[in-house]
Amino acid sequence: MAEEKRLMKGNDAIGEAAIRAGCTAYFGYPITPQNELTAYMAKNMIDNKRTFIQAESEVAAINMVYGAAATGARAMTSSSSPGISLKQEGISYACGADLPLVVVNVMRSGPGLGGIVPSQADYFQSTRGGGHGDYYHFVLAPKSVQEAADLTYEAFDLADEWRMPAMVLADGLIGQMMEGVVLPEKRDLSKLPKKPWAVGHQGELKRPINHVTSINLVPQELEATVKARFERYAKIKASLQRFEELNIDKSDLVLVAYGTASRIALGALELAKADGINVGLLRPITLWPYPEKRVSELAQQGKRFLVVEMSMGQMVEDVRLAVNGRAQIDFYGRTGGMIPTEDEVYAEIRRILKK
Amino acid sequence: MELLYGHPKSLKPIQTKYCPGCGHGVIHRLIAEVIDELGIQGKAIITNPVGCSIWADLYFDFDSVQPPHGRTPAASTGIKRMLPDHLVVCYQGDGDLAAIGTAEIIHAANRGEKFTTIFVNNAIYGMTGGQMAPTTLIGQKATTAPYGRDPIDAGMGYPIQVCELLATLGGTKYLARGAVNNAVNVKKTKQYIKKAFEAQLRGEGFTMVEILSQCPTNWGMQPKESVEWLEQNMIPFYKLGEIKNTLDGEAQK
């Protein structure tokens, strides 16, 4: 039976969705604007007889996740931009050791300590492998509290299936805002995927010993391992590029925006429509893998693009890569925690279309 | 016929990559012997640190997890919380534990995490080639302290006595310091390890055995000289014995 819709804060909904997805270990460290999530887990993980630790740092938290994930547990941490920078070491190691785990980034503005208000300036860090080495991991970008819950829930499945970290990339607005949400069903822990590579119970299972490690000092072997991982990435890129689109067919100009910025772009689209101007909207849901095939098709069809971000322009580079010189690309962004308004975006649309 | 002495089951029958005279091999053997005696090989997990003993997973015949440098106690925390009935051995060197991972060891110890840290203190960075460690003695030379460790004029700080430092923390139940420079000390060290592992399996708080160990290569000595140097220089500063023992199980015995 479907659950009733309830009013929840984004941070709380992410926490509840993680618990329902079968997260048995959460490790976090306080940072605004995601503190409600850590507090939600502090109470509800303990009430569910699961593990919660307030770690001494973000560095410790991600490595507690690393240890818990190595035993096969569904484990998670959350933080916000400066804290995510600290976790990059652990994320690189998890990618190198093929460990599934979930990281939530409720983005704030930067660089440095920056501010505590919403931003999308961690796009490069999230989608390019923010730590050292050749790697990628899933990056899922929710636009609402509902999607924050759904994508967090799904992140655990994707991580397990593909043996890699999955990041939910929200921002302070998604984390702090309250909206209606229908929560997914609570997973039966005994039915979660088996992980024959995990450590623990070796004697009982009578299996060969397992090592969870990323070290390999033999270049030929390490290259082969990284190449095998990139074959996995290629499969993911071929099958899991996700996006939502609106009003594309009627429009010459397509707005491209994700997360909070896509809500503003949608508002601008409606303002335009009221004035009889058609623009489309392409909203990437997976930022890695990026929906490059769809962007490429639209460029081929002769569309032009206006990319809207809460940054100085980061995702716009993925649009440029997909377009590959075949279409005009404009950009409109605000940064430092400034959020573009629908009117600002609409003015940009009119400027571009000379209307 | 009863076997009185043999190669431990928990240690693979292969030669190690460690240098001649290095203490890691002996320490690995002690851990393996105790695990065999406790019959817990199938439920043992080691976290091997960045440093020479990153090779530990080649030699131990049980599961292993290799975390980033210094994060070994954080990863061990995650493992032990998920598998509380397993024996989790957090193997660390002096750079891993007392420099880059100082925050992680202090807080894991303070939370009373129920794993055992085996802290190998050889007063030098081994794998990277002889740099000054937090435990390098005053006056001791290293590639990054070419005139010897000078805490005052050169501002290099003082050698850290980790057992004594951790002893003030409420979560620590058993902190002992042994050495592997001679047979007597090896035997005592094995007793400390056994006590710590037994306490862990009883679910008592944080346990650690610090082990003073030779690094002839990076000390620039012959192995024989290095065991003497350890005796004459390290032991007077790093006192051997049980630095803290508040084990409940021990009191009941």
Give the proportion of residues in helices of chain A. 40-55%
Structural class of chain A: alpha/beta
> Rough shape of chain A?
globular
Strand order of the largest sheet of chain B: 2-1-3-4-6-5-7
**How many independent structural domains of chain A?**
2
- CATH second-level architecture of chain B: 3-Layer(aba) Sandwich
**Count of distinct strands of chain A:** 15
Distance between the termini of chain A: 50 Å
The CATH top-level class label of the largest domain in chain A = Alpha Beta
Could you list the spans of chain B in which at least 5 consecutive residues all have pLDDT below 50?
Answer: none
List keywords for this structure.
heterodimer, A: 355 residues, alpha/beta, Rossmann fold, 2 domains, seven-stranded mixed beta sheet, five-stranded mixed beta sheet, 13 helices, globular, B: 253 residues, 37% helix
In short:
Chain A is an alpha/beta fold. Chain A has helices spanning 10-21, 35-47, 58-70, 81-96, 123-127, 145-162, 172-176, 202-205, 219-239, 259-274, 292-300, 315-323, 342-353, and strands at 6-9, 25-28, 51-54, 75-79, 102-107, 138-140, 166-171, 178-181, 211-212, 243-246, 253-256, 279-284, 286-288, 304-309, 329-333. The mean pLDDT of chain A is 97.
Q: What can you see in these coordinates?
A:
The complex is a heterodimer of chains A (355) and B (253). Chain A has 355 residues and is an alpha/beta fold. Chain A contains 13 helices and 15 strands. Chain A folds into two domains: 6-191, Rossmann fold (3-Layer(aba) Sandwich); 244-353, Rossmann fold. In chain A, strand 14, helix 12 and strand 15 form a beta-alpha-beta unit. The longest helix of chain A is centred in the middle third of the chain and has 21 residues, at 219-239. Chain A is globular, with a radius of gyration of 21 Å. Chain B has ten helices and seven strands. Chain B has 253 residues and is α/β, with parallel strands linked by helices. Chain B is globular. Chain B is 37% helix and 16% strand. A seven-stranded mixed sheet of chain B has the order 2-1-3-4-6-5-7, sandwiched between helices. Chains A and B meet through helix 3, helix 4, helix 8 and strand 9 of A and strand 2, helix 3 and helix 5 of B. Strand 9 (211-212) of chain A pairs parallel with strand 2 (63-65) of chain B, so a sheet runs across the interface.
